Amino acid sequence: MSETGGGRMDAFTHLGSEVRNALSERGFTTPTEPQRRAVPALADGRNGLVVAPTGTGKTETAMLPVFDALVSDGGPPDGFGALYVTPLRALNRDMRERLDWWGETLGLEVDVRHGDTTDYQRRQQATDPPDVLVTTPETLQAMLTGSTLRDGLADVEHVVVDEVHELAGAKRGAQLAIGLERLVEVAGRVQRIGLSATVGDPHEIGAFLTGGRGCEIIEVDVTSNVSFEVREPAVTDADERLASELLTTPAMASHVRAIREIVDRHDSVLIFVNTRQTAEALGSRFKELDANIGVHHGSLSKDARIDVEDRFKSGDLDGLLCTSSMELGIDVGGIDHVVQYNSPREVKRLLQRVGRAGHSRDAVSEGTVITGSTDDTLEALAVADRANEGAVEDTQVHHGSLDTVANQIVGVVMDVGETEAWHAYNIITRAYPFKQLTEETFRAVAMELHRNRVVYVDEDDDTISTSGGTWQYYYANLSMIPDEETYEVYDMAGGRQVGTLDERFVVNFAEPGATFVQRGEMWRITNIDEDDQQVEVSPIEDPAGEVPSWTGQEIPVPYAVAQAVGGMRATGGRQLGTGTPKDAVARDVAARYPTTHRTAGSALDRMARHVTEQDAPVPSAERIVVEQAGSTVVVNACFGHEVNETLGRLVSALLGQQTGSSVGLDAGPYRIELEVPSRVSATDVVAVLRDTDPDHVAGLLELSLKQSETLKFTLAQVAAKFGALKRWKGRDGVGLSRLLGALEGTPVYEEAIREVFHTTLDVARASDVLARVQSGELGVEIVGERTAVGAGGRSAGTELLTPEHADASVVQTIKDRIQDDRVKLFCVHCADWSHETMVRRVTDQPECPRCGSTRIAALSPWADEVITAVRADDKDDEQDDRTQRAYRNASIVQSHGKRAVIALSARGVGPRNAARVINRHRETEAEFYRDILEREREYARTKAFW
Asked: Can you tell me where the transmembrane regions are (predicted)?
């Protein structure tokens, strides 16, 4: 880390008089911390990376030296003097107003160019370039190929890249890195300034920004100005009543109540959640309570997003539920507190989100993390602790992405019409993500483009030139964001657009009858119009009575965070194992981490049962624990999502190969759950870990991926970027075997595998885990039962949304919900007794206290009309449908007792389906509840057609 500049007032003295006068007019008398430390170096013309929280004046930090350079030394050039590159399609309005003010005050023209810029504005910018142009990475790609625009770009002396950390970890950034090198070909040496939120590896981001050229790192420590509290709300009597009102669990009601209390104590609160679906589902609960809280995420229409942004900024909304859509500095005014619902999963995410609060100088940014389960709480504590230590995760730069190379070979050719191959190779390998690209790989990519008629490669002259398909390809692929269609969601009854859905969602999930949550409401799909790319939906009147059919993808938990949780487990397990009372261990946790004694004690409940009641080894950073119950084998492993996904795919593939049967997989950050054939045991799973050569992991995974939907979709997307597939239509398009047959052995296939490995798996660490297991450094123990920690689940978010493949936490959630539901018991024998109670209070064999009969029907609490029908029933007359169902219901309860009451209390499960569930004679309770969940799913999908 480097620091430049002297005292607090010295920074602005490095700027000329015009800018200093404007500063005084603007009321900037004292520089902020990033300005104090960065302005001297940037005013000196050096490349720089400014790492600081949102709201600390980063934009002015970068632009003051740029503005100063443009108004000094004879004024701005004829062409573009500076580019401001932002990953956001639309620059937030506050930043635009500030840049416009500086431009007007200093006599400089500031303009914006992106995909929505009109043709007239584009022509004006080409013939009379503004002094500062705000644009996106994709629009810069288009500008580099225009002859008139290239004349304007020749004068560029400064490029500011905003949110550079977001770009560095994506192919958009890899493309921009080459785009900046193409700009150098036009403009010569350009000063590069990057603006970033907190990152773990600023020197890596600096190298990415500058192509490895020198870069001043100006990093403002955010950890000294943030404060966190991790809290799991206690369930109160009021929560029991609220749960009944919201038709949810008391624990979920306590979360809603706790968030409302925080919102009520503050003026403006951002409530961050980890997925769009959780935002919608939680928003629907607040909507039921008429809470003054809006919902904001990327799938909402632009008008809906702007509406809630404006209402929140003006104070019309007290709180705003949002996803990462609010991490990139969208202006919503002053924020005095941030709530993170469930663990934020990553240190950088917690710092970025909580950093949105308390932006007045020297104010502490305060945040509360609301958790709902053991894993969730321990993980949040580990993240908060690592945040206080400044242990931010590194950004995984997309090194060597071959579809980006293909895209930019075409870009270089578009720039000049024809180029020698070595020249294009030299431009591309100047960019940091492609320093290691070999000539052999480069030529293979170029020849793939030649075969696809995207460019023409003359191997005799070693030149690359345009072909008939070059222009069309390039302008159809200006973005490296996957070419995925967006489907508009229409409420046909209300005649309005609700939002949008990604093509991946529509291809892999959407079908008539499926349900999902959007804009705080639940919808059922009634029709999918492929031609117009519309999904027609109808609202569900009673959303709390439905099971959503789909949940969003989770934010992956990094390896380091999962290991920290493992370390906490190890410490707590040792203390409990040596007889230390749980209360004393909880006090120790509360003293070392930002939480309360009560929350710490709740987080230790499962571990205490695990150690003291089950006498089981605790899975930790140093120990894997494998347990089995029936057909379920759980590998408890604290390695995070990507490593566990890698190990899980490896184990399931090898076991499937050995047995000839499929093995179900559900991998989370702390456990790998496998559904195995009856002849497979925990010992077989451990044998795979102990016998598989760590050096063969990548090859084995590649073989297993050939049957996966993940590779299918990725391969099609990559093929489109190579021009090998003109348009991917997943629903009725190209089959996997056909794609593999055509592309295996080509750079397209190589890149698809690389991308899956980069974004989903962690082969290096998984191989290291196997090596440590085989050396004895990492212990592996087998337990012959499900343990308390092993069944702990992932997060309370499953109370809002039910994943397709239910893990132990989801099963527990379904169980808790049904047990907390109310049921009306009614004796169909005497028809004289009925009693409403909670399912959990029903005896094993319900019996009528009046006549002693066990023919007891388990009905919904509002089934008065059924009771009336039975009481009026004349046994000699034909019974109506309600009466028949009541008698069938009572017959099942008489035969199967409370088990039948549980099945009949599930949503949409009548006597016939309840009998089917019971008659499967499942070995374990978990399997019984999984069957119930499947019936609830079937009901949710098909109710519209009943």
From this structure: none
Residues 174 and 235 in one domain: no
User: Degrees (nearest 5) of the Cα angle 85, 91, 93?
Assistant: 150
Residue 637 CB burial class (10 angstroms; 0-12, 13-18, ≥19): buried
Domain match, 383 and 409 both? no
552: pLDDT confidence band, cut at 50, 70 and 90? very low
Tens digit of each residue's pLDDT (9 = 90 or more) over 422-440: 999 999 999 999 999 999 9
For residue 494, give its domain range.
486-545
Distance CA 587, CA 600 (A): 8
Radius of gyration of the chain (CA): 30
pTM of structure: 0.78
Q: Per the structure block, which two tokens stand in for 134?
A: 């705000």
User: At which of 436, 456, 476 does a domain end?
Assistant: 476
Higher pLDDT pick, 1 / 386:
386
CA 635 to chain centre: 24
Percent of the chain with pLDDT over 70: 86
**C-alpha angle with apex 607: 606 to 611, nearest 5 degrees?**
120
The distance from CA 519 to its chain's CA centroid, rounded to whole angstroms, is 18
The DSSP call for residue 585 is: H
Question: In b/e form, how buried is each residue of 574-613, taking b as 16+ CB within 10 angstroms?
Answer: ebbeeeeebeebbebbbeebbbbeebbbbbbebbbbbbee
Domain count, the chain: 6
DSSP character at residue 452:
T
Statement to judge: residues 304 and 233 lie in one domain:
yes
DSSP 723-750: TSSS---TTTS--HHHHHHHHTTSHHHH
Integer CA distances (angstroms), 456 to 14, 114, 412, in order: 51, 30, 13
* The pLDDT of residue 879: 59
Nearest to 106 by CA among 65, 80, 71: 71
Same domain, 166 and 269: no
Residue 135 β-bridge partners: 85, 113
Asked whether residue 115 falls in the same domain as residue 248, the answer is: no
Closest residue by Cα to residue 331 from 366, 306, 358, 299? 306
Establish if 296 belongs to a structural domain.
yes
Calculate what percentage of the chain has a pLDDT beyond 90.
Answer: 53
**Is residue 578, in this structure, part of any structural domain at all?**
no
CA distance 330 to 344: 19
Instruction: Kindly report, residue by residue over 112-142, the tens digit of the pLDDT.
Output: 988 778 888 889 999 999 999 999 999 999 9
Closest CA to 198 of 33, 348, 387, 62: 348
- Type of residue found at 832: D
Span 479-507, average pLDDT = 73
Cα–Cα distance between 381 and 230 in angstroms, integer?
7
- Backbone angle region of 847, left / alpha / beta, with phi > 0 → left and psi within -120 to 50 → alpha: beta
Q: What is the pLDDT of residues 51-67, one digit of tens each?
A: 987 777 888 999 999 99
- In this structure, the number of other CB atoms found within 10 A of the CB of residue 571 comes to 16
Q: How many CB atoms lie under 10 A from the CB of residue 461?
A: 11
CB 453 within 8 A of CB 468: yes
Q: Is residue 444 part of a domain?
A: yes
The mean pLDDT of the chain is 85
Burial, 90: exposed, middle or buried (Cβ in 10 Å; 0-12, 13-18, 19+)? middle
Confidence of residue 445 (pLDDT cuts 50, 70, 90): very high
In this structure, are 305 and 251 located in the same domain? yes
DSSP alpha helix (H) spans, 864-910: 864-871, 881-896, 898-905
User: C-alpha distances in angstroms, 96 versus 84, 103, 707, 792?
Assistant: 11, 10, 48, 48
CATH classification at residue 179? 3.40.50.300
Q: CA dist 634 to 611, 668, 782, Å?
A: 18, 11, 10
Of 314, 356, 364, nearest in space to 335 by CA: 356
